[in-house]
Design brief:
The complex is a heterodimer of chains A (74) and B (300). Chain A is mainly α and 74 residues long. Chain A has one domain. Chain A is built from three helices and no strands. Chain A has helices at residues 6-14, 23-38, 59-72. In chain A, 20% of the residues are buried. By secondary structure, chain B is of the alpha+beta class. Chain B has helices spanning 48-62, 115-124, 189-198, 284-298, and strands at residues 5-11, 21-26, 29-31, 39-41, 84-90, 100-105, 110-113, 131-136, 145-147, 150-151, 157-162, 165-170, 173-175, 177-182, 219-221, 228-232, 235-240, 254-257. The chains are: A mainly alpha (74), B alpha+beta (300).
């Protein structure tokens, strides 16, 4: 997964002027870690990978969705 | 029903059955969003000049031929001449599940490989590839990603020891390494994604170093950072105590292997923000692993 460019990071941070200092940077860092982790699991081996749409997604998937909603507002 | 099939052998590789092969394919359709089973057309196959330029860029990057590029992984004399490179561009295909080789992932705003479809697609045109790059001209998603190879662990391989644990550079795969790449890709992104794709889910996985990743071949976790990173066969590697000069952020648990060139971040680290991406090289254990693995596959 390509690292985000400085411009891409800045765009996300600047879209949250209400956030506490460092809050969005920290959330974005965790978000990126969870996105990267999606590609560290064999999608065809074991449970979890398609769990976004599963009835009971795993906690990492739920956390990723939560951070996505906060950072990108959708 | 295909319109025009443009299949080109850009490098013949070893003259043997089943040479180590990398295929770069123009993506005909996009699953949007990823895992939705909804599909839209990808204009890439109809844009031959842009596809050819992206293919040339990716190959130059893999072989270290970009101006000033330091990492020349596939230019290694024991590797480069034996790697077969194929490009495939097919026009006139329907927008369908089988022809959608990438998905648009809302999470990460990235292009994601549809690896099973990629493998089946290139095979349907007579190509068996160890690593497949699907090149997309998505209008909104430009960020690349990759899946490692799923090795055929029931098949032959060259045994090796990673930190004393027996693994094997498997000669064959059940699913090839896959990369979803955008036609506008630049920097050393093709080399970075190839690092993931050429690695293995079960016999050494190469992970992103710019996030606090879980342990993998090139990443370990724990504090304090030990002097010794680990061993690959008879070779011992030190840890990188300072993370390429970038520094490990407070709270991280992961740490990396020593660098070949300590003045620049590793290829799998944050090369985009390094200011000198072309100067980045793989870290020491990643490079040795990739060379060993590619040579094992070349000699299969």
């Amino acid at each position: 997964m390509r690292p985000l460019s400085p411009q891409e990071k800045r765009r996300v941070i600047q879209s949250h002027p209400e956030a506490a200092p460092g809050e969005i940077e920290s959330d974005l860092s965790e978000y990126e870690r969870l996105v990267s982790a999606m590609f560290q699991r064999d999608p065809d081996a074991g449970p979890g990978f398609r769990a976004f749409t599963a009835p009971e997604p795993d906690p990492e998937r739920l956390r990723l969705a939560e951070l996505h909603a906060k950072l990108f507002g959708r | 029903m295909a319109g025009n099939v443009d299949l080109q052998v850009l490098r013949p590789g070893a003259t043997k059955p089943n040479p180590y092969t990398i295929c770069l394919v123009a993506n005909p359709a996009i699953e949007a969003p990823w895992q939705s089973f909804q599909f839209i057309p990808d204009p890439m196959p109809g844009n031959g000049p842009a596809f050819d330029a992206a293919v040339r860029y990716a190959i130059d990057c893999l072989f270290g031929n970009l101006p000033g590029q330091a990492e020349q992984l596939l230019a290694e004399p024991r590797i480069g001449p034996f790697v077969r490179i194929v490009s495939l561009r097919v026009t006139g295909l329907p927008v369908s599940d089988a022809n959608a080789l990438v998905g648009e992932s809302v999470f990460g705003s990235l292009l994601a490989p549809r690896r099973t479809q990629m493998d089946a697609f290139v095979r349907s045109f007579g190509v068996t590839a160890d690593v497949i790059f699907a090149i997309s001209q998505s209008s909104t998603f430009t960020r690349e990603s990759a899946f490692p190879t799923t090795d055929d662990d029931s098949g032959p391989g060259d045994a090796f020891q990673l930190d004393g644990i027996g693994l094997a550079h498997r000669h064959l795969f059940t699913v090839p390494g896959t990369v979803a790449m955008h036609v506008t890709t630049r920097s050393i992104t093709p080399l970075h994604e190839f690092g993931h794709a050429a690695s293995s889910f079960t016999n050494g996985q190469i992970t992103d170093l710019y996030v606090d990743s879980a342990p993998a071949l090139n990443c370990k976790a724990g504090r304090p950072i030990p002097i010794s990173f680990g061993t690959l066969d008879a070779f011992a590697f030190q840890s990188d105590p300072v993370r390429d000069g970038l520094g490990y952020p407070p709270g991280w648990q992961s740490y990396h292997c020593e660098l070949i060139d300590p003045s620049h971040p590793a290829v799998m680290d944050d090369y985009i923000n390094s200011g000198a991406a072309l100067a980045c090289r793989h870290d020491a254990i990643t490079r040795r692993f990739l060379v060993d693995r590619l040579i094992a596959k070349i000699n299969r």
